[in-house]
Amino acid sequence: MNTALATTTATTTPVLRRATSLHQHSSLTLKSPVIRLNGVRFGSGLQTVSKKFLKISASSQSTSAAVNVAADASIPKEMKAWVYGEYGGVEVMKLESNITVPEINEDQVLIKVVAAGLNPVDAKRRQGKFKATDSPLPTVPGYDVAGVVVKVGSAVKDFKVGDEVYANVSEKALEGPKQFGSLAEYTAVEEKLLGLKPKNIDFVQAAGLPLAMETADEGLVRTEFSAGKSILVLNGAGGVGSLVIQLAKHVYGASKVAATASTGKLELVKSLGADLAIDYTKENIEDLPDKYDVVFDAIGMCDKAVKVIKEGGKVVALTGAVTPPGFRFVVTSNGEVLKKLNPYIESGKVKPVVDPKGPFPFSRVAEAFTYLETNHATGKVVVYPIS
């Protein structure tokens, strides 16, 4: 395990110490009443970005509202954010209201977060399942963000204040992911990870796309998927699976897409582009009459998946034990992927799928994670509004 920079007790609870200098941040500190997280540069005195209000429309299946983002004389010095200082269940997360707004590096932008998407990797990280490569505690969780740029670094070329953007904020999901993530009112993100939000979708929908869409696309690339090939998607109604179906069919030109889902979600996977919807509660994939060029296992059944591929076929396994010739990869966040796929989203060929139980308000993030961890979500679980 990496040596944690935070001073901790024997139970790994962070020790709060009064700050003597804004730039001395080797531990979680309180500079009454400001909290600073180690490994992330924080400070006051952020530059003026505008003297107007940016109006953002955000809506979903169950919500429609206008979000006014004040980008006036000063960005707030403090903000609300979810934080955990030890690994564990949802109970270790606390909503704090005195977290310092992060400063940005020259290659970053500061985003006023409008919505944030949750991912299974968030929960696994919080549970300590990859402590050895995690960033030091304490952590503000969250990978997926959709929001508005309120400040840009000096080296940023392609984004400006007022741009509506979305991103997976951590370039490597498991190797030193950002200590300061998207479950906060503001977050700092490298330009190379950003994409402009597609014009035809709202912030809630956009927040559910980056990590899952990048995972779906990278998996297809790694299996050398191409036009005319067939694919079986396990857990086709999930966050990643729902996007694998769409990308395979509408972007890569699959000859046949089959997908597993529960009885009540079969019509959904068909609507996304599946030629064959398989009810996993009634059918065993090992008994399927056809074999596939690729199986994309997003549920953890690699041992069965390898039995339904053609000779020379490939299996990508996102979770569970890997059975050869199956393989696993860890997604790399890449704004170029978002740029590549934006036209397919704006044309309606690729559609975000947001779980109908959401979006969950910012105060109910723990409840949102509890639901996500049942593994029964449809599409993506999204948090909105962030305030």
Which class best fits the helix and strand makeup? alpha/beta
Which term fits the overall shape? Answer: globular
Mean pLDDT over all positions: 85
Oligomer status: single chain
The radius of gyration computed from the alpha-carbon positions, rounded to a whole number of angstroms, is 21 Å
Helix and strand succession?
Answer: EEEEEEEEHEEEEHHEHEHEEHEHHE
> Could you state the CATH homologous superfamily of the domain at 78-197 and 354-383?
Medium-chain alcohol dehydrogenases, catalytic domain
Classify the beta-strand content into a percent band. Answer: 25-35%
Q: Quick one: biggest sheet?
A: 6 strands, antiparallel
| Unreliable sequence segments | 1-36, 38-73
Based on the structure given, which CATH architecture of the domain at 78-197 and 354-383 is correct? Alpha-Beta Complex
Proportion of residues in helical segments: 10-25%
CATH topology group of the domain at 78-197 and 354-383: Quinone Oxidoreductase, Chain A, domain 1
Please identify the top-level CATH class of the domain at 78-197 and 354-383. Answer: Alpha Beta
β-strand number: 18
Write a brief structural summary.
InterPro entries: ADH-like_N, AOR-like, ER, GroES-like_sf, NAD(P)-bd_dom_sf, Quin_OxRdtase/zeta-crystal_CS. This protein has 387 residues and is α/β, with parallel strands linked by helices.
Features:
387 residues; 27% strand; Rossmann fold; single chain; 8 helices; five-stranded parallel β-sheet; six-stranded antiparallel β-sheet; Quinone Oxidoreductase, Chain A, domain 1; alpha/beta
